[in-house]
Amino acid sequence: MFYGDAGGSLFAHARGGNDSFTATGLEYNNYLYGDAGGDMAGYAAGGNDTFVVKGINPFNFVFGDAGGNISASAAGGNDTFNDFSDATLPDRNVFSGDAGGNMSGSAYGGDDTFNKTSLGGSTFYGDVAGNMSDRAHGGDDTFQASGAQDQNVFYGDAGGNMGDQAVGGNDTYIGGNVFSHLVNQAYGDASTISGDAHAGNDTLVGGNDPNPHPAGSYETILIGDAQSMSDDARGGNDTLVSGTGNDDIWGDAQVMLGLANGGNDTFAFNFDNGHDKVEDFGQGLSNLGIDHIDVSALGIENFSDLSISSFDFATHESTITFGPDNDVVVHSEQALRPEDFIFAPHQYDLLT
Fold first, then answer.
1. Taking a C-beta distance cutoff of 8 angstroms, is the pair 252, 227 a contact?
2. I want to staple 105 with a disulfide (CB 3.0 to 4.6 A). Which of 71, 184, 220, 331 is the partner?
3. What domains sit in the chain, N to C, each tagged with a CATH number?
């Protein structure tokens, strides 16, 4: 167990230092606290802490700033967790970028980073594992995986609910290499969003698999905002990028309730995208925003260059085929139109 500054709590104008911790060898169940084992409140501020795990070190629980709650006008530091451990696939490392509990008041999360190069499971809460409420504001957090095979769960801001007037940060998820028998899940902001909370503008990149599953079976679930949005919650303008594995993609939330509104999202595709599905393509006719499908990386310049199946009025689905074993099913409000796409520049335009 490691405390960067205090085993208890930080209050008033306390400041955490910029601490570094490296775990090597054979250790289990490491609990690492960047600043405080308890809470942070008042105007307390966390330091910019760095955690490094090497060797056989499964089950690491890392808290960038506080193990408890962060409230009032406290601010988290910009913390980094570098996971180089030789963990086995069932093992799991959990990183709460700012606090293991809740964030409330006018607390502000730091810009935290989780770099994963190891095998095994990872869970990353960009700011807090619990809820965000009042006027709490999430930081701009980043998760990047590059291990041999990964099983990741990502929440850009909160593992629980983001409510009241909380605001999510602009977070980034890069999924790395997927494991064929497990599903990676990335939520741009939180598990649920309610009240007048606003989601951030997040970027989620699907995982890679040179041998994707058959169509209809997914290796990564990308959700721009949350599992559910309710009340007057607002979604962010998210960018969701297909990997080479099969991705199930939602720009806003899997369940939209009340007066919740989604953002204006972009779904981007490249070569070897596998068999993907866009579940909630908004065309300005409902609460799903005005979304776009970006095919510029494929060199597609015109709507006429696309291979799109007929729109099914019963299912509201059509299929865009990019090539053999590479396609995306799009659930839209109406038949896809030229204005729904972002195309590559015309060669003439590049020469003028």
1. no
2. 71
3. 131-351 (2.150.10)
